[in-house]
Amino acid sequence: MPSQVRSYSKINLGLAIGPPRPDGFHSLVTLYQTLALHDVVTVTARTAGRTRIQLTSNDPRVPRDGRNTAWKMVVKALDHLGVSAIVNLRIQKNLPIQGGMGAGSANAAAALIGLERELGMRLPDADRLALAAEVGSDVPLFLIGGSVLGADRGQVVRAAPAVTLRGEAEIPCVIALPDVGVSTPQAFRDWDALLAARSEPDLLNPAIRGTLEQLGQTYASVFGNPASAKQSSGTQDESSGSGASGIFPKPSSGQSNLDGPENLQGLAREQCHNSLEAGFQPNDTSGFEIDLAGNTLLALVRTGIVNDFETVVFPQNPLLGAIKRLLMGSPPQSEAVYAALSGSGSALFGLYRSTADAEDAQQRLQQQGVRAIVTRTIPRPLYWSNMFAE
Known about the structure:
By secondary structure, the chain is α+β, with helices and mostly antiparallel strands. It has a domain at 3-164 and 226-282 and 381-385: Ribosomal Protein S5, domain 2 (2-Layer Sandwich).
């Protein structure tokens, strides 16, 4: 019987971008959060004398050959498993392509999960995450699910405690899907140009803040200092700069720690860090007291999470800034707790205190001709327990 795998989406609860690196990439610090909104990847596979892969989709824009991330993942997985197989992949697209929600990356992770189930074989955890990082920077997060801290290019990941609001880890969410395209490579180029222009700041051209350090400390202040926790990634070295944020320990030269949070898959246990650790204080927590265990989303918002891509994407696409304002709302409208661009866009999201508030925001957007979907965040235990669609 074919394995039908839910290929969940993600948003970024804050995203900080570092300067360009010698390898051509940028160091990032982000907090991924998976959503219930999903594609469905159907996998059938059986061992054979030689490998043959066929891929179909309901969306004609989906590549049906080796350019597809799911195809790439299957090829790499079969090679590491040391088997040949006839594999059929069917991708039912519900998510936007290149919308900043990780759709293609999630498809790759779902293809791996379905392939392993079909063949009755499983790659070691370290190999799974290493292969995922080779396929794409956003792929490893989908082998963890829930709330996931990301660093380096985003592929260095570790499980975070669930992001909660009023004690609930399923937070109503609205996804806005404007008919606007955003090029991620161009967004990075615009960021680099902005950094260069502000290398000598003055009163009329203020310096960009140290985003990696500041956002990393925001996460650490809310979730605690995980300096003693294991990280999970493909590879990382001292020159990458990804350890500077404080949310990941820097490994020794050549070290790769791969045996951590992926072991939480499908389990209800969490890495709970509800106290502030020494050395990682909130940027500004004066004037409020908050139960971190039940309201980590509020704690993140009040300590300053942002998405650096908005700095360069919104001026180029003013409609996206206007949509964020619609998502946020203002009295007497139902206001979002937090709204932002997801990744480099073009999708945006808002998180709300109730489903009714989310539906009000959806109506605001639809009245302005913007497609909007109500969904919810999905914590790690539900992510894995609901993974298979049968």
